[in-house]
Design goal:
Elements (H helix, E strand, L loop, with lengths): L3 E8 L5 H17 L4 E3 L23 E2 L4 H10 L3 E9 L4 E9 L2 E7 L5 H4 L11 E3 L2 E7 L6 H9 L4 E6 L16 H17 L2 E7 L2 E2 L2 E2 L5 E3 L5 E4 L5 E7 L1 H8 L20
Parallel strand pairs: 1-2, 1-10, 2-4, 3-4, 8-9, 9-10
Antiparallel strand pairs: 1-15, 4-5, 5-6, 7-8, 10-13, 11-12, 13-14
Helix pairs in contact: 1-2, 4-5
Length: 278
């Protein structure tokens, strides 16, 4: 693996799929102009997120797309030689999933269904049941969808599966129950950054975190897209603004340097850990 430029997007997406596709095409073009080989777009980039996380309206859910929907093929065509991760609502027949897909011009490289669903999403989506890394032209990638990264086991599972790059796709809002007067003081804004940095540092991997911006229904999204190095240091970020966080990283060199003396994955003691106390 050689040095690559990684871009993570902060942008707004809604129900208008043609608008979303145009925005995706523009972000891909912007990332290409920056020399990016990997672009991570937000959760729900095709169709937008739930309008109300507390009480989802069954008649106002995002449009559900089949895994082989032509819209995904169009994004793959836009991507061409770039690797692009994006989120959408997946039509699983009788069930819907909050899902992510990773594509390039050759087609689908990897998929993920969100495993950890917050209370509001349980009424709208079924949970996924696995974390699997996959190989791409820019390295081995694992994907997480927003609330997944709250749980250390999620990123750890991907790291143990050989992921060197974690793509974290989010539609992460400010606090719904205790909104702060300024976004910088918001509890969820602090947690969003904390989880990004912790998941990268504890697994000694590179993490690209995207997020929605703007508002939908009663929710206001944080933005705060960023690239995090394997030591937990933020290499680039957008803060609350829409745009791209772009950083050049050689994952093999950076991860090797981080793990040279303290190799967290090798130093684990699984026999001492408990799933549940009796």
């Amino acid at each position: 693996m050689t040095s690559i430029r990684i871009a993570a997007a902060a942008a707004h997406f809604g129900r208008d799929l043609e608008f979303d596709l145009a925005r995706i095409a523009k972000l891909i073009a912007d990332a290409r102009a920056e020399g990016a080989g990997l672009l991570v777009l937000p959760d729900a980039a095709l169709g937008g997120y739930l309008a109300d996380l507390r009480h989802p309206d069954p008649d106002a859910l995002p449009p559900a797309l089949k895994p082989d929907d032509p819209l995904i093929a169009r994004v793959a065509a836009f991507a061409a030689d770039m690797v692009v991760c994006l989120g959408y609502c997946e039509d699983g027949g009788d069930l819907r999933y909050n899902a992510a897909v990773c594509v390039n011009g050759d087609g689908v490289l990897g998929r993920h269904r969100k495993v950890h669903l917050p209370a509001g999403e349980i009424a709208a989506y079924a949970p996924g049941d696995t974390f699997d890394a996959f190989d791409t032209p820019v390295g081995r990638i694992g994907m997480l969808i927003d609330y997944d990264k709250t749980f250390p086991e999620s990123a750890r599972s991907l790291a143990l599966d050989g992921a060197q790059l974690l793509a974290c796709l989010s539609a992460w809002p400010t606090s719904i129950t205790n909104r702060a007067p300024r976004m910088a003081q918001d509890r969820q804004a602090k947690l969003f950054d904390l989880y990004d940095q912790a998941r990268a540092a504890e697994n000694q991997v590179v993490l690209a975190s995207s997020n929605q911006t703007g508002a939908m229904g009663g929710m206001r999204f944080l933005g705060q897209a960023k690239i995090v190095g394997p030591g937990g240091d933020i290499l680039a970020r957008t803060w609350a603004k829409a745009g791209l966080a772009v950083a050049e990283v050689d994952p093999e060199i950076e991860i090797g340097r981080a793990r040279r003396i303290l190799h967290h994955l090798n130093e684990r003691r699984p026999d001492a850990y408990r799933e549940k106390r009796s």
